[in-house]
Design brief:
Largest sheet: 3 strands, antiparallel
Radius of gyration: 15 Å
Mean pLDDT: 84
Low-confidence stretches: none
Strand content: 15-25%
Strand order of the largest sheet: 3-4-5
Structural class: alpha+beta
Shape: globular
Length: 111
């Protein structure tokens, strides 16, 4: 199973996708407040599982041999965040900031 964004209909920000998967909340226009997306708590996954589902996109694309994990010989596309998001709540996900982005093993962004 894999998750991703519905860009250009929805934001490209994966933190908002994680929030929707883990807490069934979606941002409203000002991006500070949220509203329930509907459904029940049984339709959520943990933040850790939501991250794994983003990684599952490599498999869904048939490209797991070159991306999806940090393994020698793969692309090494990843971000470094300012906090550990695995046990965080929705507000912490919204406030998480990217410190560094690495694409193909090269730093392409650093705050």
């Amino acid at each position: 199973m894999a998750i991703g964004t519905d860009w250009p209909v929805a934001s490209l920000n994966p933190m908002l996708g994680l929030e929707a998967a883990a807490y069934r909340q979606i941002p409203v226009r000002n991006r500070q407040a949220t509203r329930p997306e509907g459904g029940s708590g049984r339709e959520t996954v943990s933040v850790k599982e939501a991250v794994r589902l983003y990684i599952g996109s490599a498999y869904a694309q048939g490209r797991e041999h070159v991306k999806g994990t940090l393994t020698p010989g793969k692309l090494a596309d990843f971000v470094v965040l300012d906090r550990n998001i695995l046990g965080s709540g929705p507000q912490e996900l919204r406030e998480a900031r990217v410190l560094m982005t690495v694409v193909g093993g090269e730093i392409v962004y650093e705050s």
